[in-house]
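Q: Hi! First time asking for a complex rather than a single chain. Here are the components, and I think there are two in total. Is that enough to go on?
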Amino acid sequence: MKVDLRINGASRSADIEPRKTLLDALRENFLLNGAHAGCEHGVCGACTVLIDGEPVRSCLMFAVQADGYEITTIEGVAPAPGELSVIQDAFCETHGLQCGYCTPGMILAAHALLQHTITPTREDIVEAISGNICRCTGYGQIIEAVQFAADRLRKANTPRPHHGADQPVEAE
Amino acid sequence: MSADPATFRFVSTNRRVREDRRFVAGHGHFVADVALEGMLHVAILPSQHPAARIVSIDASAALAMPGVHYVLSGDELAAATDPLMNGLDTPKVQRHPLAVGQTRYAGEWVVAVVADSRALAEDATEKVRVSYEPLPFVMNAEEALKPDSPPVHPAHGSNVLLDRTFVWGDVDKHFAESPRHLSFRVTWGRNSTVPIETFGVAASWDPWRDMLDVWASIQMPKYPDQIARALRIPANGVRVHQDVDVGGSYGVKRGIKQTVLVAHLARRLGRPVRLIEDRLENMRGGDAHGPERIFDVEVAFNDDGIVKSMKIRALDNAGAYAGRAPFQLGKPIGAIVGPYKIESVQYRAQSVTTNKAVQEAVRGFGQAPTNYAIETAIDKVAAATGLERIEVRRRNFIRKEEFPYLIPSGSTYDSGDYHTVVDKVVAHIDFAAMERERDRLRASGLLAGIGIAACLEPSGGNSSFEPLLNEKNTTTTWMDSCRINIDGPGFVTVTIHNTSSGQGHETLVSTVIGEVLQIDPDLIRVIRPDSLACLPSNSPVGSRMAIMLGGAAFHAAQKLKAKLTRIAAHQFGVGEDKAVYASGAVSDPNSGRQLGWAELVNIAHRNFHLLPEGMEPGLEATHVMQVPTGNKLPQAGRVQMYPCHSFEFHVVLMAIDPALGKPEIKRYVIGHDCGTVINPHIVKGMTLGGVAHGLGAALLEEFVYDDEGHLITQSFMDYLLPSSHEVPEVEIVHHCTPSPFTVFGQKGSGESGYLGAPAAISAAVNDCVSPLGISFNKLPIRISAIGDAIADAQQGKPQEQAK
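A: Yes, that's all I need. Here is the structure of the assembled complex.
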């Protein structure tokens, strides 16, 4: 059936079987390979995408169910080709990855957290990434990356899209 | 050692890992991202029986489905291909990608279905009718050893794949002379590395070029050779694309059966074919389980806690086929005494087949289970003598001045300073304060304890265990290689000849070459050509790449540096020894003349008339590196296993709420010495990841089979991987004892953390529960087991020990 989706700010449509997962549709129909299949039963988080800004496991959702939502994949995070977002750059700075397979999901989970707060505690970060399994790093440098990104976001003199409770008040 | 650490520009500095950029953007290139024109997809029908004769296969209903192209049986595949390589001399233990005639474990692959999509192929597997006649089966290694046990391979005659007893030194004498002995059993549960990416492979066959192209999520030495042999085609007709990123491996991504299956289908159907294992196929039939091992240990020691001799019997449950499993009993021989001066060892290595999934190489290749047994022994010696556990280790450690140190089983340890590492860790922790904290936790009603483990990480992976366990095997090299080309405009491109699964090899070689040539590593391009354009290499196994690939890159760069120097000296009209290379330029201090990088490159590429006589034009160098120390076949059951030996020392503070039984790690400190670190980010990540992996092995992860022979932990709901909630913040205390056998003094670190964490965490649990008079002698130690044992102890029931 024909499905219309909003992916990374653009309207996309494709003919997709109703039983097809959002993960498979993103990869096969829209050639967005950044979301990865890990367990395909909703535990590992490698398939994480953002649906209206919240992390969701795209292996547990049918593509047709995503109609009407804003879908953000890892491909939608970099501001321009070859240019990294603050969070992506922080993962590079602390080497918050090794094989890179869980990394897109991990970065999107971090992205969602830092949309809510730029003053997360270590516990907040641990909680935010606890649905994403990384087999390489033992999480230490991932937590450092999120802390580093939060620090840079706090120091950045740029307006932020969402207003969390800790958002500094902007001078009008 | 060829380089002076004091002058490092790039080595050991906190430079970014260049591979990271593509992954954070979601632009890795994994095997599931390989989409070939006209590609077909495979799904697998597994056996429901641990052992059964295959009576008949009826694929007619599946083949009648639209979009289904083929159904492949084991008989057809076995007729068209040779059995998979078997490292041991057990010719009757034959292994094929699909079961032939009978199945040997529940989950074994019986039929492969090929369709237009994976979903269609899965649908069609449900229409394939296989009728079975169940056969007797055996799951337990000790049962499998019995002569009357059902043989997994009747033609082999028994379930014994390997039963070798080594005696190194005068064990009987040392036992007789020692005033104290103790013995115990510990069991390492069947776990594995379980990467988040399953194994996958895509293949296409070009009949007009006689060429098989392969893209795979692979970490397998001699992979193209094995494919060619099984498919009966020339090795130069197999082209493996090594630029595929591998989504984690840590040893297990050996996918040879998957590749032979898919390659056969591609050739048979004339279409590209891909198999990406789903999680069920991977967990129960991916042949990627790890060691499952019983250790019976006897120790001879004295009242001062000095361990004189040790007897270890290791019984390993290999699963249904030989695989690499038996060799995982061989590699630990290279560090069979751990970091200790134990004078003699008797080691009996037994490997048996059972009706479980096949065991594959796992991080450390048998070393982590062995270290768990050795460290348990040291703790028991401490308990028996009433000495502190750290003190017993200090008394038995090899001393810094005793290196290089020859252990009884024939390996020489390169270097180490174990006492200093321990001192640094104890000081970092404030060990007395940690003991006070433990006592405070105990006073608050919790069970609390401290776990300690010291161990070695043999590194620089050679394959000496092969000739040691199989006399027909005469392998004495496990080389790795690197090629550097400086092009006409002066840019540097390096080829490396393996796949990578997160180890940062591009960062490694660019750092090393930048260091030698004194040029910016970020300007060096590193590529992985396909296997036909590759130099001989043996993949990133055995913690070898910093030593072997780093060494090959170092030597290739040295050749280019010498060539550039020679070209300049020729222009200056002086001997090479008078010309000085610095930062890509060469000068003659006497005349003050200097030639820069661009000028030297230009001469090499364009001015043959200016080159010294006999010199080839261009600037290209290769180096094929032999493993340091690997120059002899085994003699009398002794061999130099790996060249280098990293050291780690773990201290864990743990608390357990007796009502819950859940172990909570309050503090985790690891002292780590892997010689000169090439990239600190990479080594830190390996170590932290290894500790997390070891935590899984100690507390969570196990492939459990029920009495019917079925795997019951086959999803991530029940095979539990550590999440960020389980893994504690880990503090690393560094020390650097350079290796005399490597170019920068580096040692390996790819298995660090994992080799000692299970022993340390197990020891912490046992220290927690020791006031209750109970202990755990089998990994993993699950929350449920702890909770039950505590409850029983509190009710005065005797503890039921693991069988």
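A: The beta strands of chain A are 2-7, 10-15, 48-51, 54-57, 70-72. Let me know if you'd like any chain examined more closely.
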